[in-house]
Amino acid sequence: MKRVILDSLKEWKTSYRRKPLLLQGARQVGKTWILKEFAKDSFTSSAYINFLDNKDAVSLFERNLDIDQILEAIEIQSRTKIKGADTLLILDEIQECPEALSALKPLYERYPEIPIVAAGSLLGVALHSNTSFPVGKIDHLFMYPMSFYEYLLAVDEPLCRPLDSKDTDLIEAFSNQYIEALKRYYFIGGMPEAVLAYIETKDFSEVRKVHDRLLFDYEHDFSKHATPLLSERIRMLWNSTPAQLGRENKKFLYSAIKKGARARGYEEAIQWLVDAGLLLRVNRISKPGIPLSGYENKDAFKLYMLDVGLLGASSHINPSSIIKGNALFTEFKGALTENFVCQELLATGGIQANYWSSDSSEGEVDFVYECNNTVIPVEVKAEVNLRAKSLRSFITRYDLKKGYRVSLAGFKDQEWIENVPLYAISMLPGF
Q1: What is d(CA 418, CA 411) in angstroms, rounded to the nearest whole number?
Q2: What is the tens place of the pLDDT at every residue in 141-199?
Q3: pLDDT at residue 260, as a whole number
Q4: What is the rounded CA–CA span in Å between residue 177 and residue 190?
Q5: CA 345 to CA 339: how far, in whole Å?
Q6: What is the enclosing helix (H) or strand (E) of 153?
Q7: Which of 160, 198, 246, 316 is the most exposed place for a label (fewest CB within 10 A)?
Q8: Using CA atoms, how far apart are residues 34 and 20, in angstroms rounded to an integer?
Q9: How many CA atoms lie within 13 A of 3 on its CB side?
């Protein structure tokens, strides 16, 4: 399977004054696989250490060895001679060894020619746990589940060509095929193992087995990496997410976790799941000023799951939904569609969006982000309903040039609003 992030890794390799790279992402999004593919594609050899599976490697870094000794120890552990720029050094699950994370800076300073990639599924959690971090000496890259485009690359590559050329006429000519592919993606999602299960079996029940196993593994991580009290709160918060998104107003409510729940008791649980890459947080803005971060109200927010397929599995959506017209797009008040757009903004565009709602709660715009010093508002419609009253009010109120709507309808430019099909979301500004 092809992953677009490989191009970013190649750019990092040839970048001026390259630093060690920290690759972050949730468990099972494909970090280890892509790094090994990167090594095969761009280097003559690789030295691979996994701190989760190799406790001896962890102990080596705990022995207070000097840098030359550390490098020799890595060579012995990996059974690989490190040959400067020709060898990629991969330190996987580095959050399990804080000493290795701290060693990245002196390794880089002593051997700047050696390309080093550190990866971890719970790195965000580790970095919020007083783990020493080499500030200013690290490059960063985030990895997400497979986007819809990457899914097409894996299951129906010819459909990628019109999207690559941005040929709107050709895209619309194959709209039915794109919609059918998108319906399948809503169910399968972008977790590589789930996509592979579909490719190999074409059996949606096998896909769902993968989802269930991943969800089980995530819950196991809660108890493994958090205190008993925190892990219980994480679990309750995690399990409440589908119901939160199933409401008409998807703003996060603490009371939906359990009766009487308050922010003070669950802020840490929210941060844990966001740091682990399992939940995507979208904060409210009071007005569309530049930068948007200056107008965030972090007390009002929405939480989406990292993957639309896992959201569907958590909500027990039946595979039969795939063949029932376009019902999947409107399933529990369009939650799947909104989740899809949120993860596409991040995975494809690298966009951390906000949302806007009026103080009176009479109007709301699903996603708002910045592009080239311009505010881009996006309204999400699950089907072909093209009414966008809130979006028009928002544009008029703040004197914006244009808004965008993503829906199942085709391309349509009405001056103040432009419709972009859900399956061509990569044609929004900033992608």
Answers
A1: 7
A2: 999 999 999 999 999 999 999 999 999 999 999 999 999 999 999 999 999 999 999 99
A3: 85
A4: 18
A5: 10
A6: helix 148-155
A7: 316
A8: 16
A9: 26
Euclidean distance between the first and final Cα of the chain, in Å?
Answer: 22
**Residue where the block lists tokens 């992608």:** 431
Whether the CB-CB separation of 150 and 1 falls below 8 Å is answered with yes
How confident is the model at residue 131, as a pLDDT? 62
Backbone angles phi, psi at 144, to 5 degrees: -125, 170
CA–CA distance, 131 with 129 (Å, rounded to integer): 6
Task: Determine the residue type at 191.
Answer: M
Q: Which of 339, 292, 297 is nearest to 148 (CA)?
A: 339
Across 130-163, b (16+ Cβ under 10 Å) vs e yields: ebebbeeebeebbbbbbbbbbbbbbbeeebeebb
Instruction: Give yes or no for a contact between 410 and 396, defined as CB atoms under 8 angstroms apart.
Output: no
Q: Which residue has the tokens 């996994």?
A: 50
- How far is it, in rounded angstroms, from Cα 235 to Cα 126? 19
The residues with which 364 forms a beta bridge, in sequence order, are 357
Q: At what angle do helices 204-225 and 228-245 cross, to 10 degrees?
A: 140
Alpha helices in 174-282 (DSSP H): 175-188, 192-201, 204-225, 228-245, 263-275
Q: Whole-structure pTM over 0.85, yes or no? A: yes
Instruction: For the chain, give every residue range classified as CATH 3.40.50.300.
Output: 5-142
CATH fold for domain 5-142: Rossmann fold (3.40.50)
Residues in the chain predicted with pLDDT less than 70, given as ranges, are: 127-135, 361, 385-386
CA torsion, ordered 342, 343, 347, 352, to nearest 10 deg = 40
Quick one: pLDDT at residue 128?
59
- For residue 312, the model assigns a pLDDT of 95
Which pLDDT does position 127 carry in this prediction? Answer: 65
* Interhelix angle 98-110/55-62, nearest 10 degrees: 60
Structure tokens at 352: 């951390």
Secondary structure element (H or E) that encloses residue 355, with its range:
strand 354-357
CA 97 vs. chain centroid, Å, equals: 24
Find how far residue 301's CA is from the centre of its chain.
17
Report how far residue 333's alpha carbon sits from residue 307's, in angstroms, rounded to the nearest whole number.
Answer: 17
